[in-house]
Amino acid sequence: MRRFLAIALLSGAACAFAAEPPRVAAPPADLFKAGTLSPVMPAPALMLEGSDGKPVTLARFRGKVMLVAFGFSNCGEVCPITLATLAGARKKLGAGGADVQVVYVTVDPERDDAAQMKKFLGSFDPTFVGGVGTRAQIDAAEKSWGISSVRNTNADGSYAIGHSSSIYLIDRKGGLRAVMPYGHPSDDFVHDLKILLSE
Amino acid sequence: MNRRAWIIVWPLIGTAAAALAWAGFAPIHVPSHDELFEIPKGTYARRMKGDKVEILPAQIRLTLGLNDVLLLRNLDEVPQVFGPTIMMPGQSLRLPFEKASRYDFACTAHASGQMTILVEDEPVMPWSKIHWRAREWWENRKK
């Protein structure tokens, strides 16, 4: 009887290897690491003041690949990591990095003015441009981009802001192509930026 | 147990053992990496009327190497925010995952406004394959 059981086990395992078709192939390498949107539609508008003193609009950077993200200069964790990742990706792209423009829009207009954002972003990459404006302008930008931000006030009156942390990838024509959730390494950005830069 | 009873029991045990061996060793076949979910037309309108419609599960389970791409289609007439992005009417989001983890996203298609995606490691060991198959069978049975 034990022999019967052994035969049953072996025949089951043999069937497993013989009868089952191979599982579906891995996705091709040209697919984005980020989440991709289809069909591609124009990125939502931006009408803000830039940390470099010039207006921040999508039209200004048309022809470049844009990375747009939202955050604030007093952010202790998410924003510094995001900005360091983006700076690393630009550096890894070498000469191609010159065609990549990072725009970081504040969700804290009460504390982030153009000078503050310039200082903050400059510590990561001097080419990064911050988007600042009035509370109404920032609220409008958040709404059109689907961004959420919540102010958490501490007992001493200081506050932090919980906010959407994804990075938006915009192609040279201004189309919103992909969204990279927070936490991806710079190599994933390099991978996707190379696809967009080659178009 | 008498000999006649054993004649009935042993084939059953053998068949179960063979099935377990198959479930533990056979490569898992899936037709696509994509796990598709759709936000139907009229979702926003129904919610505005007070209908607590739940059109997406509160928790979606994905498995690396098998179904590790979330494909979300907005068939509604208004934009919907799903996690990292806003999706226009008619737009799809294809979101691949490469790390096993728990992901919490905001989602306007949910009454709670939240959605969790659990991404699990690829089942490689026999026991994990058996577990994966059993769970798939159980969940498909309920559909």
Overview of this protein structure:
The complex is a heterodimer of chains A (199) and B (143). With 199 residues, chain A is α+β, with helices and mostly antiparallel strands. Chain A has 5 helices and 10 strands; from the N terminus they run αββββαβαβαββββα. In chain A, the strands form 2 sheets. Chain A has an 8-stranded mixed β-sheet with strand order 1-10-9-4-5-6-2-3. In chain A, strand 7 and strand 8 form a beta hairpin. The longest helix of chain A has 18 residues. The N and C termini of chain A lie far apart (67 Å). Chain B is of the alpha/beta class and 143 residues long. Chain B contains 3 helices and 8 strands, in the order αβαβββββββα. In chain B, the strands form 3 sheets. In chain B, strands 1-3-6 form a 3-stranded mixed β-sheet, with no helix packed on it. In chain B, strands 2-8-7 form a 3-stranded mixed β-sheet, with no helix packed on it. In chain B, strands 4-5 form a two-stranded antiparallel ribbon. The two termini of chain B are 41 Å apart. Chains A and B meet through helix 1 and strand 1 of A and helix 1, strand 5 and strand 6 of B. Strand 1 of chain A pairs antiparallel with strand 6 of chain B, so a sheet runs across the interface.
Sheet/helix structural class of chain B: alpha/beta
The gross shape of chain B turns out to be elongated
**Largest interface, counted by CB within 8 Å of the partner chain's CB:** A-B, 41 and 44 residues
Oligomeric form? heterodimer
Unreliable stretches of chain B, pLDDT < 50, 5 or more residues? none
Cα distance, first to last residue of chain B? 41 Å
How many β strands of chain B by DSSP? 8
Structural class of chain A: alpha+beta
Helix content of chain A: 25-40%
Topology of this protein?
The complex is a heterodimer of chains A (about 200) and B (about 140).
Chain A: H1 2-19, E1 35-42, E2 48-50, E3 55-56, E4 65-71, H2 78-92, E5 100-106, H3 114-122, E6 129-132, H4 135-145, E7 149-153, E8 159-163, E9 167-170, E10 175-180, H5 186-197
Parallel strand pairs in A: 4-5, 5-6
Antiparallel strand pairs in A: 1-10, 2-3, 2-6, 4-9, 7-8, 9-10
Chain B: H1 3-25, E1 34-39, H2 43-48, E2 59-63, E3 69-74, E4 80-82, E5 85-87, E6 92-96, E7 101-106, E8 114-120, H3 126-142
Parallel strand pairs in B: 1-3, 2-8
Antiparallel strand pairs in B: 3-6, 4-5, 7-8
Helix pairs in contact in B: 1-3
